[in-house]
Amino acid sequence: MDFLFTPWRYAYVTGQESPSGCLFCGLLRRGNDESSMIVHRGQHCFVMLNAFPYTSGHVMLVPYQHTDEIQKLDSAAATEMITTAQKTEGILRELYHPDGLNLGMNLGRAAGAGVADHIHLHMLPRWVADSNFMSVVGETRVLPEDLHTTYRRIREKF
Prior knowledge:
Blueprint: H1 10-14, H2 23-30, H3 33-36, E1 38-41, E2 45-49, E3 59-63, H4 75-96, E4 100-104, E5 121-126, H5 133-136, H6 147-157
Antiparallel strand pairs: 1-2, 2-3, 3-5, 4-5
């Protein structure tokens, strides 16, 4: 069996990199949507770019309500998350022409949540064979579009 060691992930796994307070709530308080990469604000949730995207167009849908479980989420916010996901899917399909999309939530640190105390839904375009040598072996993502261009393109569609 081969092992691939990634010691730089230790701080993430043990929570040593966690900033004080909630990342999402802090970005909302900042009040500058462009620097916070918030592309859309709804009544109950907002859409923002992932600062460390797997692919161009990787966004997160986040409720304003600070909660760590879907079952605790107000039903109006849950409904808006899904309708916003529908709209976001259309935007990503129009802009990026993906072969598919990944949607997912990691609930809790053990499930892989980087921000475990505030639920959020990841949505990202995917293409057949979009994993290549650089990402699999070289552990380097190659993105054809910078975050500011992604921000502008997606924000214009909302």
